[in-house]
Amino acid sequence: MATKQKKKRSTKHRGNAAGMVESRGRTGRPLSEAEKKAQAKMTASERRLQRLETPPNWRSAANRAAIASLIFGVALFLLFGQAVAPTIALAAFMFLVYIPLGYYTDLFIYRRRMKQKAAGKA
Question: pTM above the 0.85 mark?
Answer without folding.
Answer: no
